[in-house]
């Protein structure tokens, strides 16, 4: 049993804290946000993540997991401290490191024995060295420590599964012994562990996220071409995915990527390249294609309903993807803003994202379910592919809508079936196909 402190109880920190506790370690999770810690002590999760409440509850009950706002309490006697605070985008796209800095300073001021500082926050390449420097200069007296980079690859919505079944663990440090100790913590997860230097580990995270974002923009570009040529991008990506060299993942065309990672990580990587005098042409195209998805769907809605003035548009799904309450850089909010600006009334329904969205955009009216949303609306727009939207009673929806127009930003329905039902169905990259190969 190791003693681990985790700084930050966001998506990454809380899942890691609960996960390491579940593996049998003693974990104290710290956050400077008192509300979050107060809530956690009462069993209230600060985020929605499937399975998280049970995992936290089980480990709190067995006294392996506890919460605090006090650095001395968290760090006293710890073998490891994981830093998992947010790293939002700054003005030029560079990662803003003020939270990482403040966490490193606070740790340095209270550490009472040798400590391995493990950074999980996504930080620009070179930050590990900078963290070491901050700790060195903030310690009241010199105490040995090592910095290890351990980038996090978990996805929101399946974060616990991803924590317990990682594809790999990447560790970077100048201190091999320290990296090896962090490797031991990950051994029960039975995934390949790679130990490299600090900067390389930091780069693996950016390169991985940028590559996945590139796949998404690639398939979205193909979607645009499919639409013009009468091909169906959904089938094209299925056909491509059978090739083991390509694989089926991250080839869903639609509204592009949102969330707290891809948009800011691609921007930050491009910023790092610019700073060194390199022109990141591919990354720039990835970002441009992604931005364009949101404009494009608004044009599709206009194609369906005409001028927005006086129209009611129903938005199905607000979060940036299903199974999370996260609204950071969610395409739906961007789309809603454009619709409102052009005079539409925007009504929305989301299984978990409505309370957060109501705070961010009070102008959006909230409906109690998909059917209430459809009632009297001029069109429905699917922005998030929640499971519960996949088998709606479409006949009923059609009867409730003022016009049977459905714009599917996530390609969850079949064009021919929707046409049969009598919908005007506009999807992303699905050219007209009447099933007759000679008319393709
Ligand atoms: C994580 C990573 O850390 C980030 O670098 C990565 O790019 C995305 O995933 P996430 O877990 O999503 O971030 O962050 P968030 O949900 O914003 O949580 C961060 C937590 O850290 C918050 O609860 C915040 O209160 C806390 N925090 C922030 C501290 O405890 N101390 C600070 O100084 C700043
Ligand atoms: C991502 C990475 O997958 C994860 O490894 C990293 O640690 C954090 O960033 P996350 O942002 O939680 O995880 O979600 P992910 O499932 O990767 O989706 C990101 C965005 O891409 C979502 O907006 C999603 O809708 C979009 N997406 C994903 C597509 O548009 N098409 C796809 O084929 C896949």
Structural class, judged by helices and strands?
alpha/beta
Give the percentage of residues in beta strands: 5-15%
Bound molecules: uridine-5'-diphosphate-xylopyranose
- Let me know the largest β-sheet: 6 strands, parallel
Written description of the protein model:
Residues 434-440 have low confidence and may be disordered. The protein is built from 17 helices and 14 strands. α5 runs parallel beside α6 (127-138) and α12 (281-305) crosses α13. It has 2 domains: 3-196, NAD(P)-binding Rossmann-like Domain (Rossmann fold, 3-Layer(aba) Sandwich), CATH 3.40.50.720; 211-435, 3-Layer(aba) Sandwich (Rossmann fold), CATH 3.40.50. It is globular and about 70 Å long. The chain is of the alpha/beta class. α16 links the parallel β12 (379-382) and β13 (405-408). The strands form 3 sheets. Strands 3-2-1-4-5-6 form a 6-stranded parallel β-sheet, with helices on both faces. It is 44% helix and 14% strand. One uridine-5'-diphosphate-xylopyranose is lined by residues 7-13, 31-33, 36, 84-87, 99, 102-103, 120-122, 260-261.
Topology readout:
Layout: E1 3-7, H1 11-22, E2 26-30, H2 34-41, H3 52-61, E3 65-68, H4 71-75, E4 80-83, H5 98-110, E5 115-119, H6 127-138, E6 145-149, H7 159-164, E7 169-172, H8 176-186, E8 193-196, H9 198-229, H10 233-241, H11 262-275, H12 281-305, E9 312-316, H13 331-341, E10 345-349, H14 354-360, E11 365-366, H15 370-374, E12 379-382, H16 394-400, E13 405-408, H17 415-421, E14 424-427
The chain binds uridine-5'-diphosphate-xylopyranose (2 copies).
């Amino acid at each position: 049993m190791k003693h681990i402190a985790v700084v930050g109880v966001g998506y990454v920190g809380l899942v890691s804290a609960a996960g390491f506790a579940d593996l049998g370690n003693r974990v104290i999770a710290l956050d400077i946000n008192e509300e979050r810690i107060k809530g956690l002590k009462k069993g209230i999760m600060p985020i929605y993540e499937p399975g998280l409440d049970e995992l936290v509850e089980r480990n709190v009950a067995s006294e392996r997991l506890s919460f605090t706002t006090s650095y001395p309490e968290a760090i006293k006697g710890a073998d490891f401290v994981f830093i998992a605070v947010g790293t939002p985008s700054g003005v030029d796209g560079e990662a803003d490191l003020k939270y990482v800095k403040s966490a490193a300073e606070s740790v340095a001021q209270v550490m009472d024995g040798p400590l391995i500082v493990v950074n999980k926050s996504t930080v620009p390449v070179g930050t590990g060295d900078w963290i070491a420097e901050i700790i060195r200069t903030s310690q009241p007296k010199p105490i040995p420590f090592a910095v290890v980079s351990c980038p996090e690859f978990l996805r929101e919505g399946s974060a616990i599964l991803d924590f317990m079944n990682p594809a790999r663990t990447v560790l970077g440090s100048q201190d091999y012994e320290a990296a090896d100790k962090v490797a031991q913590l990950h051994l029960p997860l039975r995934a390949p562990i790679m130990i490299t230097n600090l900067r390389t580990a930091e780069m693996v995270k950016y390169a991985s996220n940028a590559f996945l974002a590139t796949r998404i923009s690639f398939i979205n570009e193909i979607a645009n071409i499919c639409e013009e040529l009468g091909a169906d991008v959904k089938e094209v990506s299925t056909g491509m995915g059978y090739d083991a060299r390509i694989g089926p993942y991250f080839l869903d065309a639609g509204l592009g990527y949102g969330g707290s990672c891809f948009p800011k990580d691609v921007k930050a990587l491009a910023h790092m390249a610019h700073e060194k005098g390199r022109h990141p042409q591919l990354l720039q195209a990835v970002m441009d294609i992604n931005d364009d998805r949101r404009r494009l769907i608004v044009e599709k809605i206009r194609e369906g309903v005409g001028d927005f003035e006086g129209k009611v548009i129903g938005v199905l799904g607000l979060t940036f993807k299903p199974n999370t309450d996260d609204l950071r850089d969610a395409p739906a909010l961007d789309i809603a803003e454009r619709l409102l600006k052009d005079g539409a009334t925007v009504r929305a329904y989301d299984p978990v994202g409505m309370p957060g969205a109501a705070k961010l955009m009070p102008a959006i009216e909230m409906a109690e379910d998909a059917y209430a949303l459809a009632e009297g609306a001029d069109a429905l727009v699917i922005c998030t592919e929640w499971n519960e939207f996949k088998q709606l009673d479409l006949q009923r929806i059609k009867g409730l809508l003022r016009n049977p127009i459905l714009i599917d930003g996530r390609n969850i329905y079949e064009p021919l079936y929707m046409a049969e039902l009598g919908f005007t169905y506009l999807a992303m990259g699905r050219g007209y196909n009447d099933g007759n190969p000679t008319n393709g």
